[in-house]
Design goal:
CATH superfamily of the largest domain: Dihydrodipicolinate Reductase, domain 2
Number of helices: 13
Distance between the termini: 34 Å
Strand content: 15-25%
Structural class: alpha/beta
Helix content: 25-40%
Largest sheet: 9 strands, mixed
Strand order of the largest sheet: 15-14-13-12-6-11-10-9-16
CATH topology of the largest domain: Dihydrodipicolinate Reductase, domain 2
CATH class of the largest domain: Alpha Beta
Radius of gyration: 21 Å
Number of strands: 18
């Protein structure tokens, strides 16, 4: 009931008031720790049953359920999805579905047992302006897509990595976790960029053919908090990603799609514009959008048979999971950001401590615009080797080696 699950609970409660849904039951291994939340969500008045384990919940309730919502730690997704689909239940599965490409294939197989396909909650794919722009891209209005870039800086205090036992981890009990800004916190935007590069269908994603990456950390964590990743897709589109939690100040993110006739600039919820090569600038209003509520409603429409597919299926997640895994294979190790660039910043208002990397914005620009890797420009590491899907067999050995360092 804690973490992002709490936001799901608040969303479903609002949807229930509007007549869209009915919450039957929930579970948590420590339900007593959320007594106040249960009162706020009016579980007693709504007749919501609380169980200490998801298996107990499914045993007791599965005959009365239309779907199961799984907003749990990444390493629990596969087993919970398997338990639900074995009973024929479709799943609203929070992103990422898994960050283990082989486990994803097992989940895709298991999903065929359910009455309907599961949804992976990459929240922004169903934004109406995004879909309209993708349709214009596919119609050829902007010319061919040549490339796309994602820049995202999301400050995270040290306490963020201490909030549970899986934050910033590569593995737990020998199993893949790979929690990171790229694979989890900002996974929506990584998935978005692959969406722009997909075709010829609207709901399609660019498939990575060759990946190069440099992974770094400033925080005292097992995984990486800073990613520089480049991939060429099977269709020949070049994608570059620069993401970090090792920063302070305001958060920022920007998706840019580079076409023959124009550049599309997209900031979720704020700014959408088309900068044509002839000097015109077309601005598009960012419509009000409640990501979680809209994704719940969109999935309900699919489950009722009103639409033909969920926004993102498990099979649609293959490109994202493969890209994340190949980024680790390419980088081969997680290098420390040079200590001379990292300083502590105390946010007195929040009463939280951050690490800030000097020159990070410039490093992003040099990489995204000029293709200059930070390792060769003062960050003191060797370049990552090119990794292709044929190298996925190296993935587990690479991650195990990273986890030992």
């Amino acid at each position: 009931m804690g973490g992002f699950a709490g936001i799901h609970h608040a969303t479903v409660a609002r949807l229930e008031e509007q007549g869209h849904a009915k919450l039957i039951a929930t579970c948590d291994p420590r339900p007593e720790a959320f007594a106040m939340e249960q009162q706020t969500w009016r579980f007693s008045e709504r007749g919501v049953h609380v169980y200490p384990d998801y298996r107990t919940l499914l045993d007791a309730c599965h005959r009365g359920l239309d779907l199961l919502v799984v907003p749990t730690p990444i390493n629990l997704h596969a087993e919970m999805h398997a338990a639900a689909t074995a009973l024929g239940l479709p799943v609203y599965l929070e992103k990422p579905p898994t960050l283990d490409h082989a486990e994803l294939e097992q989940m895709i197989t298991a999903d065929a047992r359910a009455r309907k396909s599961s949804l992976v909650g990459f929240n922004f794919i169903i934004e109406k302006p995004r879909l309209a722009l993708k349709e214009r891209i596919l119609a050829g209005e902007f010319g061919a897509v040549r490339g796309a870039t994602l820049s995202a800086l999301w400050p995270r205090p040290a306490s963020y990595f201490a909030r549970n036992n899986w934050a910033g981890r590569l593995m737990i009990d020998g199993r893949i976790v790979l929690d990171s800004c790229f694979g989890n916190a900002m996974a929506h935007f990584v998935h978005n960029l692959l969406f722009w590069a997909g075709g010829p269908e609207l709901f399609s994603w660019g498939q990575p053919a060759a990946v190069r990456a440099e992974l770094y950390r400033a925080h005292a964590i097992e995984g990486a908090d800073t990613f520089f990743v480049e991939t060429d897709t099977t269709a020949g589109v070049n994608l570059r990603f620069a993401l970090s939690h090792a920063c302070a100040g305001p958060s920022s993110h920007l998706e840019v799609v580079l076409c023959d006739k124009a550049a599309l600039r997209y900031v979720v919820g704020r700014q959408i514009e088309i900068r044509w090569n002839d000097g015109r600038v077309e601005k598009i209003a960012a419509e009000p959008f409640d990501p979680l509520a809209e994704n719940h409603l969109d999935y309900y429409r699919y489950l009722r048979g009103e639409t033909t597919r969920p926004a993102t299926t498990l099979a649609d997640s293959r490109a994202f999971v493969a890209l994340n895994d190949l980024a680790h294979v390419s980088s081969a190790r997680i290098a420390k950001i040079p200590a001379a660039l990292v300083s502590g910043v105390r946010d007195e208002k929040e009463q939280k401590d951050y690490l800030n990397t000097a020159g990070l914005t410039a490093a992003h620009e040099n990489f995204l615009v000029r293709g200059a890797w930070p390792g060769a420009n003062g960050w003191e590491r060797e370049p990552g080797e090119v990794a292709t899907p044929a190298d996925l067999g190296k993935f587990y050995d690479v991650v195990r080696t990273m986890a030992k360092r």
